[in-house]
Design a protein that fits this description.
This protein is an alpha+beta fold and 162 residues long. The chain has five helices and seven strands; from the N terminus they run H-H-E-H-E-E-E-E-H-E-H-E.
Length: 162
């Protein structure tokens, strides 16, 4: 990965090495992320063992098929509780961007947001409890941005779902 000069030995030398190696470790994580995304897109292109999109990925998680969950750092789906002045109440999972613009199906008026909970931590915990590994994907790379545009959630699956 690289060479760093340090002035100390022992515990102080190790601390100095860690401090001076931040740039190398960051490069290493970016390379790992790129390789992961390249593998994901390659599998996606040949209809391999991957899923993407919120509903497909949650379905795969619930069936225990996800080997590695991929979550964008910018994943923005929330579980919203909505209420209309006509009395209609619903709960749904929706993008944070459009949660405030939900229309009541009964009367056609704008619904009020009672609560909106981010789902990224909930989904990651669910994945971990089912034995899946979780990787967060930044949007700092071209591949990470592409992944975000696909919904920001997906994963490698152990087997194909029908």
């Amino acid at each position: 990965m690289g060479v760093k000069d340090i002035g100390y030995t022992g515990e102080y030398g190790l601390q100095e090495l860690v401090e001076r190696s931040g740039d190398l470790m960051e490069k290493s994580s970016v390379i790992f992320e790129r390789q992961l995304m390249e593998k994901f897109f390659s599998e996606l292109q040949k209809d391999g063992n991957v899923v993407y999109g919120y509903e497909e990925t949650v379905k795969a998680l619930e069936s225990g098929a996800v080997e590695m969950l991929l979550l964008s750092e910018m994943f923005d789906i929330v579980h919203a509780k909505l209420k209309c002045e006509c009395g209609n109440e619903i709960e749904k999972d929706v993008s944070q961007k459009i949660v405030d613009s939900q229309i009541c199906k009964k009367c056609g008026k704008m619904m009020n947001v009672e609560s909106a909970e981010e789902l990224s931590d909930f989904i990651a915990d669910k994945a971990k409890s089912s034995g899946s590994k979780v990787e967060y994907i930044s949007v700092d790379t071209r591949e990470g941005s592409q992944f975000k545009e696909l919904g920001g959630i997906g994963g490698f699956v152990r087997y194909k779902l029908k």
